[in-house]
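Data follows
____________
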Amino acid sequence: MSSLHPRAGRRCHNVVNPLHSTVYFSPDFTDELGRIGIEDPDAAYFAGRAAALGAVGPGAVAATFYNFNHDLIAKHLPAVWDTASPQTVLDARLRAADTTLRRLLGDDIVSSADMAEAAELALRAAEACTRHARPLYAAHADLPVPTEPHLAYWHAATLLREHRGDGHLAALLAAGFDPLEALVSHTATGKGMSPRWILATRGWGRSDWEAAEARLRERGLLDAEGGLTESGTALRAEVEEHTDRLDRAPYEHLGVTGVERLTELGRGFLMTAAVAGAFPPDLVGKA
């Protein structure tokens, strides 16, 4: 029987995934997508994250990204593929990852033995990821692994991120959260994206947000002040535990020692990136 802690995979994910996400907040990503003709930031994000799926339309992205308004996606897809092919976008995204990681971490960390070790550990964990019912993971799993260790680590972080994310959508569906209810309830935990960021990037309006709050109150999950009730807290916890169960295989495969080491290395990289300004200061919170 495994001695892996039930939340060990979540803890590892919570330090590995954000380093992947730095690219989408990076001016280097904006610059690289702009050079291939994609200048709108929403179009750049949709294209950059969805390109592994091919030249998909708004339906596929609404399904796999889950919490974006379909109308916003449809403003940019499939038209964006007339500007740049999915492969051109993937190449630009990888160049942005290279520039971003070098800028945030420095060349010494990028070329370090620790980075090579982290890449090897993360790729080993990803060996146990499964493609069935996980479209974003499966699409990225078909991409080649970059040769440089820092890009291999970023690629592996992408695989682990999308594998867990695909499972998380199943957990949200099982809990009965629609896309905006998922966002509102996560923000209410104090760990989710702030309402300002959600309303600025997800295509929802203030009236949509308030309607989602009302639906959650009707279910007894949200109180009058916008905080989670006891039932709401319990349901959000179950969503995360359900996600943990669906995402257990990579970390079981890596083993206790490997997970602890990847978590240690990932935390160090993430702290360095955060100090270097990788994330907006008001990204997370209830305000």
